[in-house]
Design brief:
Strand content: 5-15%
Number of helices: 17
Structural class: alpha/beta
Shape: globular
Strand order of the largest sheet: 1-2-4-5-6-7-9-10
Order of helices and strands: HEHEEHHEHEHHEHEEHEHEHHHHHHEH
Length: 361
C-alpha cells in the first residue's frame, strides 16, 4: 500500500496532535478528539525501556477502541530493539512512528531523536526493519539538517527505506526554548516536492488560521501542532472555547481513564497558565491538590473569577519563549540557508547576552 493509500485509509486527517512526552496520553488524546483532532500520536516512548520493563509498558501505553487513528511513537538507535518494542503495540495502532526530531539533552545523551539525523545508514536500517516486519506502516518525524541538499537527501532515503508518512518540523535541533524563532515552511515545501509520500507540516502552528494557511502553503496534506494544542486542547475547534470548560471536560476524561494525578496537574499548569499567573492562590492549591475533585473545584473557581474575559485572551503559555509573538510571524518562507544564517546570528546574540550577564553577576 502506498503512503497516500494508507493516508486515505485512515480518513485523510488534516488536524494532527503531536507526540508529547508525558502529555499526549490517553485522556488528553480523547480530549483533543472531542475538540476536532483527527489523528493523535502517543508520547515518545523509549524503545529500550519499553522492551525491558513490563511496568514501563503498562505506564507508557494505554489506549481504547475510540482512540483511533493512533500512531505510536518510539525513539531509539537499535533496529532490533525498536522492532521488539513495536511488536507490543502493532495490533492496537494504525502506524508506528520513529522519532528523529527530539532536540532535548536527554536525546543527545541517549543518542536518539534529532541526534541521529546525520546517520542516514542507521535511520534507513531502522525504517527497513520495521517496514519488513510489522503489520502496520512505519512513519517518521524529523527536524531539518543545516542545508537544503542534506535535508532532501535524508528525506528521499527515508522514503526509499519504506516510510509511509513523513512529518517535518521546519526548524533545526538547535531551535528550542529561547532560541525557538519562526519555523521555515520553505524547506517543508521543498521536501514535499521531492518525495511521493504524504508530508505533515509541523512547527509554528500558532492558531487555527496558521493551520489552514499551512494546507495551502507547504503541506497541502496535513498539519501537526504540539505546544499550542498542549495549552489549548480545543485548538482545532472553529470557535474559541473557554479553557476552563475544556479542562473541566479533561478532568472528566482523566477520571474515566484513571489518569495519573501528576499528569493531570501538569496539564492544568499549562492550560490555566495565564489564570494562575494572576490568581496565585489557585495555583498553590493546584500544587497541593490530591484528587480530581479538588482540581475540578479549582478550575470552576478560576472560571468564575475570569467571567467576562474573552477565551482567546486566556492563552499565554505557548508564547513564553516567543518574545515577539504578537508582532512576529511564527513561520517564514525565506530561503532556507538564509533562514539558518539569521537564526545562527540570533543564537550568537543570545549567547553573548547570557555570557555578559553571567560575568556581571
Amino acid at each position: 500500500m502506498s503512503g497516500y493509500d494508507f493516508y486515505r485509509s485512515i480518513g485523510s486527517p488534516k488536524f494532527i496532535v503531536a507526540p508529547m512526552v508525558e502529555h499526549s496520553k490517553l485522556s488528553y488524546r480523547m480530549l483533543t478528539r472531542k475538540y476536532s483532532a483527527e489523528l493523535c500520536y502517543t508520547p515518545m516512548i523509549n524503545s529500550k525501556m519499553f522492551v525491558k520493563s513490563e511496568a514501563t509498558r503498562e505506564r507508557e501505553f494505554k489506549t481504547c477502541p475510540e482512540d483511533r487513528p493512533l500512531f505510536v511513537q518510539f525513539c531509539g538507535n537499535d533496529p532490533d530493539i525498536l522492532l521488539e518494542a513495536a511488536k507490543y503495540v502493532e495490533d492496537q495502532c494504525d502506524a508506528v512512528d520513529i522519532n528523529l526530531g527530539c532536540p532535548q539533552g536527554i536525546a543527545k545523551k541517549g543518542n536518539y531523536g534529532s541526534f541521529l539525523l546525520e546517520n542516514t545508514d542507521l535511520i534507513v536500517s531502522m525504517v527497513q526493519k520495521l517496514r519488513d516486519n510489522l503489520k502496520v506502516p512505519v512513519t517518521c518525524k524529523i527536524r531539518c539538517l543545516r542545508t537544503v541538499d542534506a535535508t532532501l537527501e535524508l528525506c528521499r532515503a527515508i522514503e526509499q527505506a519504506g516510510c509511509s508518512i513523513l512529518t517535518v518540523h521546519g526548524r533545526l535541533r538547535e531551535h528550542k526554548k529561547n532560541l525557538i524563532g519562526p519555523c521555515n515552511w520553505e524547506i517543508i515545501r521543498k521536501i514535499k516536492e521531492s518525495v511521493s509520500i504524504p508530508v505533515f507540516a509541523n512547527g509554528g502552528i500558532r492558531t487555527l488560521a496558521d493551520a489552514k494557511l499551512a494546507w495551502t502553503t507547504p503541506a497541502e496534506t496535513a498539519v501537526m501542532t504540539s505546544e499550542a494544542i498542549l495549552e489549548n486542547p480545543a485548538f482545532f475547534e472553529p470557535e474559541w472555547q473557554h479553557i476552563e470548560d475544556v479542562m473541566l471536560a479533561f478532568l472528566e476524561l482523566a477520571e474515566e481513564y484513571d489518569e495519573d494525578i501528576n499528569t493531570v496537574r501538569n496539564h492544568l499548569y499549562k492550560s490555566l497558565y495565564s489564570g494562575f499567573k494572576v490568581h496565585t492562590d489557585l495555583r498553590d492549591r493546584t500544587v497541593a491538590a490530591t484528587s480530581i475533585e479538588q482540581m475540578r473545584e479549582i478550575t470552576e473557581e478560576l472560571k468564575d473569577r475570569r467571567t467576562g474575559q474573552l477565551p482567546e485572551d486566556k492563552i499565554e503559555w505557548y508564547h513564553r519563549y516567543w518574545k515577539g509573538h504578537k508582532t512576529e510571524s511564527p513561520y517564514t518562507d525565506i530561503d532556507f540557508e538564509e533562514f539558518v544564517r539569521v537564526q545562527d546570528e540570533k543564537a550568537s546574540a543570545v549567547c553573548k547576552t547570557s555570557t555578559s550577564i553571567a560575568m556581571e553577576m
